[in-house]
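Hello, quick one for you while I still have it in my head. I'm working through a protein record and want to make sense of it properly. Would you mind checking whether the tokens look sensible for this chain? I owe you a coffee for this, so here goes:
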Amino acid sequence: MNSKTTYVSQFDEVMNSLGTRLEKLLEGAGGENAALLNQLISELESEKIKGYRKDMDIMLEQVHHGFLSRLISKYPSLSPAEVKICSYLRLNITSRDIATITHRSIRTVENTRNNIRAKMKINPEVNLVSHLLGI
């Protein structure tokens, strides 16, 4: 799973680089070329997001067979986004990589982690990943 996460992170960097280069081409393009480049950029973003989410959702379900139901049962107030973050954390995936996979900022992932801690009523001294591994 961690090698897949690394691959997704590296793939994201390549896709972002490609998108940036297309946007630079767009600056000098006009008419039909500009429209075509805009369409390519939109398709690139759309396919990238769909592919990530599909792959990661399948992998999380396979890896966390019973975890998700136990987590939701024990902490029903967790939102679907928080449950997904818990799944990534349980795999010891960094906040940076979670941000890349979920297309959120690192700050958003950190805030979500804090919300999870609050909903679980976990003391600051307790490691969140260790707590999730015990569920």
About this structure: The chain is about 80% helix and 0% strand. The chain has two domains: 1-63, 65-135.
